[in-house]
Amino acid sequence: MGNMSVRRLDLGYFVRPAAETDGPLPRVEPVLAYLVRHDNGLILFDTGIGDAGPETEAHYRPRRRPLQEALSASGVALDDISLVVNCHLHFDHCGGNPLLRGKPVLVQDVELATARAGDYTVDALIDFPGAVYEEVTGEVEVRPGIWVVPTPGHTEGHQSLVLRQSDGTVVLAGQAHDFASGFASDQLARQAALGGVEPPLPPYRPWLDRLAAFDPRRVLFAHDCSVWEPARS
Question: Is 25 exposed, middle or buried (0-12, 13-18, 19+ CB in 10 A)?
Fold first, then answer.
């Protein structure tokens, strides 16, 4: 597995309106990216909040931390990145991609096709000058010990990054779940179903079976600073 480490990057936050929170109040959500140091180069998982125009700005009221500033705090420059992986192509996950023109961006083919079909994201964040995409279909080992795994739900082409580190597996789940607590609930639903508990039970996302096969010790998210860890070590 070689040497591998991951560092969380704070790229700001936005305010989700009450109409989108299933509650009476708005909610402030972080926007997090992850820098992966691998023997074969630096990988950046998500790139922050892009400019989606005045209507979206007013709707979400984002506050951005510049990608260059976040990378610099980790001793890294934009030119040092060798590969970009976006969990999906909404404006709050691929906003810094144009700053990395010429760097390969790894994305599920269905996600890129959906983004290019229109009425989905910000076009200027997708086919900007110098954009280079590596389209994949399904699960792929992109570097020794690093896999992209499809985790559809939030979008059809959503993907997560699985890191097989020497001290256990870390999953960068993006927005596969909004919160660590949601992931934990699905994990318990799966555990109950596999344990033979009689229905009714809540459904869980079928790709959890694949992630479980990696035996993750930590799962990290794009909009939640909390970290999921198994109850039993």
Answer: exposed
Express each pLDDT in 196-224 by its tens digit.
999 999 999 999 999 999 999 999 999 99
Each residue's pLDDT tens digit, 67-119: 999 999 999 999 999 999 999 999 999 999 999 999 999 999 999 999 999 99
Q: Is the pTM of this model over 0.90?
A: yes
Structure tokens given for 74: 């980790």
What are the residue ranges of helices labelled H in the chain?
A: 54-60, 67-72, 109-116, 180-194, 208-213
Helix, strand, coil percentages for the chain (3-state, nearest 5): 25, 30, 45
Q: Distance between CA 220 and CA 177 in Å, rounded?
A: 10
Residue 181, SS3 per DSSP? helix
